[in-house]
Specification:
The chain is α/β, with parallel strands linked by helices. It has a single domain, classed as NAD(P)-binding Rossmann-like Domain (Rossmann fold), CATH 3.40.50. It has 6 helices and 7 strands; from the N terminus they run E-H-E-H-E-H-E-H-E-H-E-H-E. It has a 7-stranded parallel β-sheet with strand order 3-2-1-4-5-6-7, sandwiched between helices. It is globular and about 45 Å long. The structure holds nicotinamide-adenine-dinucleotide (NAD). The site of nicotinamide-adenine-dinucleotide (NAD) has 28 residues, from helix 1. Keywords: Oxidoreductase. Belongs to the short-chain dehydrogenases/reductases (SDR) family.
């Protein structure tokens, strides 16, 4: 597999679900990993389980001061920040007449503004290093519409666009920016979705580990010429 020997990776929403799978896989590939999440107990447990190349940082991705503290803690612990996985996200599903402004604002704040704040927070350190890989988690809902997922879809299209503009601006500093677009993956977020109602050519939903390989690839030098790209990991669903 990829050798991330000593690379420092911060994973937002890293305490559970897909983020935890990314944190485990990056760690297994040799990275030093910061699990960043609102969930103290789950985040601490995971960092403890991973051991001395891992730590937990409490992070609210919607909060500027929280980002400043998380990046500072990362640099203090590990002396660098090579990989940022902007994975924290919420769905707030509702048909349009029931999508309150509060729900809309919350999904945009976490899924889109959170990604903006994260990218902005790590860029100074990555520029100083002359390298970095930013991996922004969008969705297949960042490529097509779905009923009842309006704020989510808008935020995920936003993440896709933000990734493109950052890739163009930051390439000259050795910083790569890519987006990943998972399909139906079994986590707490998707327990109420019936896979049979989706037309998935592979005929099943995925488990989080099946997306983690793409994240490790994008974190590693195996993807050294890959920037501004979009990785759909959906079992063929939107083909
Ligand atoms: P999940 O609900 O299991 O995990 C989300 C994590 O994000 C949780 O640990 C939560 O505490 C954290 N989080 C939420 N708000 C936060 C905040 N303000 N600050 C910091 N952390 C916060 O969801 P998941 O299925 O693992 O999804 C992870 C990401 O993958 C999301 O961005 C989601 O949109 C995306 N995604 C998921 C699927 C899927 O099928 N599960 C498909 C496509 C994209």
């Amino acid at each position: 597999g990829a050798d991330l020997g000593g690379r420092v990776a911060l994973v937002t929403g890293g305490a559970r679900g897909l983020g935890a799978a990314y944190a485990r896989a990056l760690h297994a590939a040799g990275a030093r990993v910061v699990v960043a999440d609102l969930l103290d107990d789950e985040g601490r447990d995971l960092a403890t389980e991973l051991g001395d190349r891992a730590r937990f940082v409490r992070l609210d991705v919607t909060d500027e001061a929280s980002w400043a503290a998380a990046v500072e803690a990362t640099l203090e612990s590990f002396g660098a920040i090579d990989v940022l996985v902007n994975n924290a996200g919420i769905a707030n599903a509702a048909p349009i007449e029931h999508l309150t402004l509060a729900k809309w604002d919350a999904v945009i704040a976490v899924n889109l503004t959170g990604v903006f704040l994260g990218c902005r927070a790590v860029v100074p350190a990555m520029k100083a290093q002359g390298s970095g890989s930013i991996i922004n988690i969008s969705s297949v809902e960042g490529m097509r519409g779905s009923p009842g997922l309006h704020g989510y879809t808008a935020s995920k299209f936003g993440v896709r666009g933000l990734s493109q503009s950052l890739a163009v601006e930051l390439g000259q500093f050795g910083i790569r920016v890519n987006s990943v677009h998972p399909g139906l993956i079994l986590t707490d977020m998707t327990t109420r979705i019936d896979p049979a109602k989706l037309d998935i050519p592979l005929g099943r939903p995925a488990v989080p580990d099946e997306v983690a390989g793409t994240i490790v690839f994008l974190a590693s030098d195996a993807s050294s010429f890959t920037s501004g790209a979009e990785f759909v990991v959906d079992g063929g669903m939107i083909a």
